[in-house]
Amino acid sequence: LHDIFLLEEGDSWQSGWAVGENGTVVSTSDGGDSWTVMTSGTTETLNGVYFLDMSTGYTWGTNNTYLITIDGGANWVEQVAPNKISSEDTDTISDIAFDDTGEPLYAVGGAEGKDRIWEYDGSTWDQISTSEPDTDTLLTKISVNVEGTDWYVVGEDDDNSGDGTPSWRKPNNASWDSINVSYSVFGNNYCVGFTVLQNVWVAGENGIFYSYNLGLDWNHQYQETEIRDIRMLDMSGTPIGWAVGREGVILKYDTQWNHQETQSSDLYGVHLINDSDGAIVGANGLILITNDGGD
Fold first, then answer.
1. What sign has the CA pseudo-torsion 192, 236, 219, 250?
2. Beta bridge partners of 253
3. Contact of 266 with 231, CB cutoff 8 Å
4. What does the angle CA 158 – CA 150 – CA 80 come to, to the nearest 5 degrees?
């Protein structure tokens, strides 16, 4: 499983959905006590999932896959994917950002050596960025701060050239800017998380980095030799944050990062709705639930 979304209901949650390889979609309506396998209608890898309410949700992934449900996940219908606008048949949609009404805002991904950001104008997708054709890159995650004014996008540099990792920033709702490689966090970066203002965290194969000015300066916050390959961040529980990654690592942030525990499977997704309640997903269908902040 690659991602999980929990539908917040007051101070807790009962409904949740997780997605992953081979078109896998599972759902719960009892706070994670039991899970039901849903039929997605695809065998593609699903990278992300988002639900507006108990009925309307979206999932997306490899090979132009972009699906919507209006019945809580029982049935999924293909939508016009942002990458089809560019006439590429092999694009991957890595992540999609939505507004509070459930309208998509931006999508990130790429294919065939081009990283891409697409913007949704209410009816169509417009490609607003791309890398040079001879680079082998993929944008992986997009995040916005609490105020909704500043955005940051991270990615992978699959050719391992050492020339820098693709990153984009959008400060104060201005235009998108490509980050100069001298300012980007080196290595493959898989996730990004915001709190307030321009406080942003980026994580990947080289640990966790922090910037107070939207990526112009970085500090290496967590770089234990044995724990470096971080796959997902969730900083939405300000001031509490979470990170999960390879070899089952779980980290918790409360003024600093601390190793919480280790599972036997690689972990790829985490979603906390508050400081106490949340879930983690990983390889081999693993789903972990907490209602005490991981304690």
1. negative
2. 241, 257
3. yes
4. 60
